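Run log // design_07
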C-alpha cells in the first residue's frame, strides 16, 4: 500500500464513555464551574448567606421596638440564655441590636456601591469612548477627587450634615438622616478607581473589529456603549461591586465608631462599637464589642472571598486550579 493511502478496512476510532459524554459549555456554565471550584469563594458565599439569613430572619423574631427598649436593671449583663449576646450599658439586648444594626450596615454598603458603580461606570465609559477633550476633563476631575482623603471628607461631611437631616420613616422603620448622608458621601468618594478601570477597558474595546462593524452598520454611540462595550466590561464592574460593599461597610464602621456616622436611635454595627469603648466597657464587658466586631469581620471577609472568586471565574484566561 502506497504511503499516505488510507486503508478501506480501517476501523473508526471508538471514543470512551467519558469522552463521548463531554458536551460543550456555555460561557455562563464555565464561569459557574470555576466559581464553584474556588473553595474560599464558596466558604465566603455560605457565610454571607448565613449573615443575610441572620439579619433578615432575626427581624421576624425580635421587633425593632424590642431592640431599642432599655432596662437599666439588666445593664451590662453577660451572655445568658435570655440574652445570648448580653446586654448593653442601658440594658438593651445586643443580639437584637446586631440584627437591626446589620440591616443598616448592609443597606449602607449596597446603596453606596450602587452610587459608586453608577458614577464610575458612566464617567469611565464616556471618557474612554469619546476621548479627546472629554477624556481630559473627566480624568483630571477623577485625579482631583483621588487627591482628596476620602475618610477625612467623610468625617467632615458627616459632622456637618448628619444632624441637619430629619429622621426618615421607611418600610415601617425610622432611619436617622445620617444614614442618607453616609450613603451619599461613601458613594460619591469611592467611584474613581472603577472609573479608571472601565476607561482602560473601553479604550481597548472600542478599536476591536466588532465595534468597528457596529459603527459601520450605523449604530448610535449610546447603543454601542450600552449593548456592546459595557457588557464586555461587566466582569470588572461585578468584582468592583462586591469588593465595594465590603469597603463601604468598613467605612461606615470607622465613622460610626468615631461618633460621626449613623446616629441613635438607629443601630449599626459601628455605633454599637462606639458605645462599647466608653467607661472601660472594653475591659469589663468584652461581649459588648466582641459580637458586633465578629459580625463585621465575618461579613467583610466573606464578601472579599466572594469577590476574589468572581474575579477568577470571570477571567477567561484563568485556568487556576482552586
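design_07 sequence
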Amino acid at each position: 500500500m502506497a504511503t499516505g493511502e488510507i486503508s478501506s478496512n480501517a476501523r473508526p476510532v471508538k471514543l470512551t464513555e467519558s469522552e463521548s459524554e463531554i458536551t460543550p459549555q456555555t460561557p455562563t456554565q464555565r464561569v459557574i464551574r470555576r466559581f464553584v471550584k474556588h473553595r474560599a469563594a464558596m466558604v465566603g458565599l455560605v457565610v454571607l448567606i448565613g449573615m443575610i439569613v441572620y439579619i433578615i430572619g432575626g427581624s421576624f423574631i425580635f421587633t425593632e421596638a424590642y431592640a431599642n427598649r432599655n432596662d437599666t436593671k439588666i445593664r451590662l449583663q453577660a451572655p445568658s440564655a435570655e440574652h445570648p449576646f448580653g446586654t448593653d450599658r442601658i440594658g438593651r439586648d445586643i443580639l437584637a441590636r446586631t440584627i437591626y444594626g446589620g440591616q443598616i450596615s448592609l443597606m449602607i454598603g449596597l446603596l453606596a456601591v450602587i452610587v459608586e458603580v453608577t458614577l464610575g461606570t458612566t464617567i469611565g465609559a464616556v471618557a474612554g469612548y469619546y476621548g479627546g477633550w472629554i477624556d481630559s476633563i473627566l480624568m483630571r476631575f477623577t485625579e482631583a477627587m483621588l487627591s482628596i482623603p476620602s475618610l477625612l471628607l467623610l468625617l467632615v461631611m458627616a459632622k456637618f450634615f448628619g444632624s441637619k437631616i430629619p429622621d426618615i420613616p421607611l418600610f415601617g422603620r425610622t432611619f436617622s438622616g445620617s444614614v442618607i448622608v453616609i450613603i451619599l458621601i461613601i458613594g460619591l468618594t469611592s467611584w474613581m478607581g472603577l472609573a479608571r478601570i472601565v476607561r482602560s477597558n473601553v479604550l481597548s474595546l472600542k478599536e476591536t473589529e466588532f465595534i468597528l462593524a457596529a459603527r459601520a452598520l450605523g449604530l448610535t454611540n449610546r447603543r454601542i456603549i450600552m449593548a456592546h462595550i459595557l457588557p464586555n466590561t461587566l466582569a470588572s464592574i461585578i468584582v468592583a461591586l462586591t469588593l465595594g460593599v465590603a469597603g463601604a461597610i468598613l467605612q461606615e464602621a470607622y465613622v460610626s465608631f468615631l461618633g460621626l456616622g449613623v446616629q441613635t436611635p438607629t443601630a449599626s454595627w459601628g455605633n454599637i462599637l462606639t458605645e462599647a469603648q466608653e467607661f472601660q466597657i472594653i475591659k469589663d464587658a468584652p461581649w459588648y464589642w466582641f459580637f458586633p466586631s465578629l459580625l463585621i469581620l465575618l461579613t467583610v471577609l466573606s464578601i472579599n472571598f466572594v469577590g476574589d472568586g468572581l474575579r477568577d471565574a470571570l477571567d477567561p484566561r484563568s485556568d487556576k486550579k482552586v
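The first strand starts at residue 168 and ends at 170.
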